[in-house]
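@channel sequence for tomorrow's demo:
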Amino acid sequence: GHTLGDTVRAAINRRDALRGTLEARVGDKVYRLVPEEERASGKLPFFMHRERGLHLDEREFTVDGKPVSATLLGTALTCMHAGAEHARRADGGCYFYIPKTESAAEVRIYRDLFDACAELMPHLRVTGLVREFNKAHTTSGSSFGLGTPTVTASVAPPSIIRAIVLIESLPAVWEMEEMLFALGPYAAGLNAARWDLKASMIEYAMGDPSSVWPDRFGVDIKSTPFMANIFRRLVAVCLKHGAVAIGGMATALPSRDASVNAAAAASVRADKEWEA
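structure tokens (generated this afternoon):
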């Protein structure tokens, strides 16, 4: 199972990847990142950090005898170490995927966490304190329709932290707009999940004897209306609020069998063409 050592190693690995010093030894083989000056693109791939979900604890790390949230510890480690490397880069920005949330209230916890990180770690700040910025740049009347103040989208927040919410649970489908609002200045977009969203729907349908779920292999975004409408709604919400809509991972898997692999590739292409 997962250990505290795994959490610490993950933070070190991401920091070293950003520094360009990450390496792994497997038997007699050594794997290293190619130095930036030798890469064709000259840059590392875009980094998205994904911490463990709010439903998990870090059992080996306790405060007052109680295990801390895995989300809290992982995010703090990432902001402290990888965040410092992000801040040194010309394209500095510390981006997070937010997984497994089911409500805007849960997403709001991340905003409070990002606020705290930005206040305690100067390298994450652009200018000033986050809470002072939020107080100074709110408007009466929200474009999100919640009737409460919202951060003015045209003013850059003072932290390099940004986050994208994974829409991978059935309850989240109904609160996409509210989730963007809950993140405030950290909101960057929404990601349309596939496998986990289907699994969440099955979980809820299984608990309702009046619900019927079709064969999961026949549920496809291109041909299943309720899935297609979820994704169209996600795009509409993002366009409305200047956020980024990101397509989910295609569910067709590669294979060593050439014919199966060709069919999978064709499925992925059709899937992404539909998204576009």
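heads up for whoever presents: DSSP finds ten helices and eleven strands in the chain.
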